[in-house]
Amino acid sequence: MKSLVPAVDRPPKLVTERLMLRELRDDDAADVARGAGDRRVAKYLTQVPNPYTVAVARRWIAQRVTWWDTGKGATLAIVRRNAPDDVLGTVSLRRTPRDARAELGYWLAAPAWGAGIVSEATRSVVAWGFRDLGLRRIYAEVFAGNRASCRVLEKLGMTLEGLKREHVRKGHTHHDVLLYGLLRTEWKDR
Ligand SMILES: CC(C)(COP(=O)(O)OP(=O)(O)OC[C@H]1O[C@@H](n2cnc3c(N)ncnc32)[C@H](O)[C@@H]1OP(=O)(O)O)[C@@H](O)C(=O)NCCC(=O)NCCS
Question: 152 CB less than 6 Å from ligand 1?
């Protein structure tokens, strides 16, 4: 796992064994709309427009691209190294600079599940966050019952820090949310 030298003013491309994590582009909108709009994926995400049109995805991408300009972090497309135009999912770090922390977020298109892709992508992003962005803490929130996502976070070495009862309403259901966290001092890939 290695990161390429960052461009001066844009997020770097992170390269892993099978993947590349690169900045989102306007022409990724169709893949994003199809992937995140899929009910199997959307049911685990806090806010997903329904229907998720390409126009909506375009606006989402445009807004996420501005994160970097304002120090709020980055949302990167997950692509295979040999198919850099096909977006499988995204992974993000949303920073709170004054506290040197960031929230990790991700989703992956359902056909690509179960092959270790998000584990590989998040390992790289966590390393980037601790090594290059100066973070002290990376955390994630996940609906209780999202076992695959909990497993991804456990494999990153995250600690289950708590459960926020009925924290998020989605449709008519109020979901319990699990909070996971990892400190730079605990991070094993240093
Ligand atoms: C959660 C998600 C990102 C996982 O992506 P992925 O690339 O398939 O994950 P990985 O293959 O890297 O790892 C998944 C792990 O969970 C395990 N897992 C999968 N389904 C599981 C289940 N129902 N119960 C327990 N563990 C499960 C896998 O076995 C694997 O663990 P292992 O490596 O020890 O075998 C993907 O399923 C997804 O996008 N889901 C919908 C959106 C979402 O939940 N986003 C996160 C919001 S917090």
Answer: yes
Higher pLDDT, 47 or 16: 16
Q: What is the CA radius of gyration of the chain?
A: 16
For residue 139 and ligand 1, the question of a CB distance below 6 A is answered with: no
Secondary structure of residue 104 in the 3-state scheme: strand
**Tokens representing residue 71 in the block:** 């120090």
Inter-CA distances, 185 with 50, 66, 108, 136, Å:
40, 30, 29, 8
Q: Which tens digit of pLDDT belongs to each residue from 50-85?
A: 899 999 999 999 999 999 999 999 999 999 999 999
Q: Is 149 in the pocket of ligand 1 (CB under 6 A)?
A: yes
Coil, strand or helix at 68? helix
Closest residue (by CA) to atom 2 of ligand 1?
149
Whole-prediction pTM value? 0.95
The CATH class given to the 13-137 domain equals alpha beta
So what's the pLDDT on residue 190? 60
Give residue limits of the domains in the chain.
13-137
Tell me: pLDDT of 5 over 90.
no
